[in-house]
Amino acid sequence: MVARKTGFFVGAVAGAGVAAAALAGVGLRMAPAQAADAPPPLVRVASGPTIFAPPPGAPMSFADIFEKVSPAVVSIDVTSRVGAGSLRLPNFPFGPNGKPGEEDQPGGDDSNGRPRQQSSGSGFLISADGYIVTNNHVIEGADEITVTLKDGRELKAKLVGRDEDTDLAVIKVQGTGFTFVTFEESAKPRVGDWVIAVGNPFGLGGTATVGIVSAYGRNLNDDSSTYVDYVQIDAPINRGNSGGPTFDVYGRVIGVNSAIFSPTGGSVGIGFAIPADTANTITRQLISSGKVVRGYIGAQIQNFTPEMAEAIGLGNLKAAVVKAVTPGGPAAKAGLMVDDIVLSVNGVKVESSTGLTREVGRGLAGQNLRLEVLRDGRTRFIDIRSGVRPSKEELASSLRASESETPPQKGPVAPSAARVQVLGMGLTPLDAAARKRYNLGPEVQGVLIETLRADSDAAERGLATGNVITSVNLKAVKTPADVVAAVEAARKAGRPTILLSVYFNGQLASVPIKVN
Question: What average pLDDT does the structure give for the chain?
């Protein structure tokens, strides 16, 4: 059960108002005469009472906007089996965080004696006939969904469809004539423009908070960020706000509140919303077919960074690099290879693994995807017939299976007479004894890292004993001498790094290592 915090900071707000009034009085008494070309004062005296003149672009009140849009915002209460759904947390590298989602409470047992829990979130109507947008993590695992409208009506809702990859879902209530709001896709607010978040924080219902757009293109370092560039806002959102809308000052939906950064569990002014264009595209698919279908080529990829590019003389190139190809998959059939550097898809430039995944995901099953790749220093085009992307569960199961196929064996490492020391790594040939010890099949070719100095750059980059170096600067290596030669060549060329392709736990990864 999530601990609740009570207490309202009314005194601080009231005190601020009194202080402002006092300062206003001082300003009227003490201010010198104003030059004709000076900016207008913050306090003006008219025939009526003293009024505050906001800076240009700042509304005097958000009341008209809230009155217009609030009837379309709903509270969502969910009853589910304990453990049926989970609260997914973005993996921020800089501190605690969370989804501003459900406030979990115990809910007794169901008819079969299974424990139940109740949680709450927010949503909003996007049609007069009862379609409602919310977050997937609000309704995930739900047995019963109840929607409460602003006028107090409680309606049962059914799930229309959900998409784990973007954390969006659509539910529906019976009826017609509902007040609804629309997505704004073309006229995005600028960073610094006003926004209004409306939702159901802590079960309070119908709550509006105001702030500004703080940034665009935020990555939460979780699965949803593969397909979502989040909007960062500072309008306070808290637990229960998940799935609620963020409006611009015209009452148009510019985002769906989804996550917060919080060391405390409450708002600290850093919230994240799914952009309207992404939400609109996904919800349309969910309404039409109940699911989202994405393209798939069957390849594992990672970012190809400027540091990696520098190691092989490609300047500041940013792209994606192929680290594995699924046997029998679309990419394998088309001839895509490990260490191919993908530069574009259907003419759209690719600057990261996320960019490649998104462009492939936009394709339909059976559609041709033309990939521009760099291989052996030459650019070429590969046409791939897109498949259908498996579910997250299927992809995760496949990855677990590949990792379990190559568990490292325990026991001391016998010193090798053929060991070569380079860059803090003790390298040996990949012989039968090493293959048996680390359970490496014949398909794995390269040089074994038998020992590793703890203070080496390789260790700091995450390499470990038992890893296999398969290539250096995208050229295959078979002996430790091949690695040493590549390091010396890089030093003579004045390059600060080399690019290793490393096999570990059933996967390949490109890792830049300093040579000096």
Answer: 80
How confident is the model at residue 58, as a pLDDT? Answer: 64
Range in 76-85, 290-299, 418-427, 434-443 with the lowest mean pLDDT: 76-85
Q: Among 236, 267, 292, which residue terminates a domain?
A: 292
User: Is the same domain home to 240 and 357?
Assistant: no
Q: What is the 3-state secondary structure (H, E, C) of 185-252?
A: CCCCCCCCCEEEEEECHHHCCCEEEEEEEEEEEECCCCHHHHCCCEEEECCCCCCCCCCCEEECCCCC
* Residue 137 a catalytic site member: yes
268 and 223, same structural domain? yes
> Is the torsion defined by CA of 321, 323, 329, 331 positive or negative?
positive
Q: 264 lies in a domain?
A: yes
Residue 287: give its domain's CATH number.
Answer: 2.40.10.120
Neighbours of 50 (CB within 10 A): 13
| Digit-coded pLDDT (tens) for 28-67 | 233 333 344 444 444 443 444 444 555 566 677 888 888 8
Please confirm, yes or no, whether 258 is among the known catalytic residues. no
- Strand-strand pairing, 497-504 and 507-514: antiparallel
Catalytic residue among 163, 165, 167, 248: 167
| Enclosing domain of residue 176 | 61-292
Q: In this structure, is residue 240 part of a structural domain?
A: yes
Alpha-carbon Rg for the chain in angstroms? 29
Closest CA to 313 of 191, 435, 47, 494: 494
- Counting residues of the chain whose pLDDT is more than 90, the rounded percentage is 56
Exposed e or buried b per residue across 152-164, where buried means at least 16 C-beta atoms within 10 angstroms of its C-beta: eeebebeebbbbb
420 pLDDT more than 70: yes
- Express each pLDDT in 127-186 by its tens digit: 999 999 999 999 998 999 999 999 999 999 999 999 999 999 999 999 999 999 999 877
**Domain shared by 286 and 314, yes or no:** no
Query: Choosing from 119, 224, 225, 242, which is the catalytic residue?
Result: 242
Residues 6 or more apart in contact with residue 336 via CB below 8 angstroms: 297, 299, 322, 325, 371, 373, 382, 384
Q: Same structural domain for residues 101 and 230?
A: yes
Alpha carbon 191 to its chain's center: 20
Q: Judge contact between 256 and 274, C-beta under 8 A.
A: yes
pLDDT (average), residues 98-118: 53
The closest alpha carbon to 211, from 239, 233, 240, 232, belongs to 233
Number of structural domains the chain divides into: 3
Of the residues 119, 137, 224, 501, which is catalytic?
137
> Could you confirm whether 111 is annotated as catalytic?
no
pTM of the model: 0.72
Residue 14: Cβ within 10 Å count = 10
Say if residue 320's pLDDT is above 70.
Answer: yes
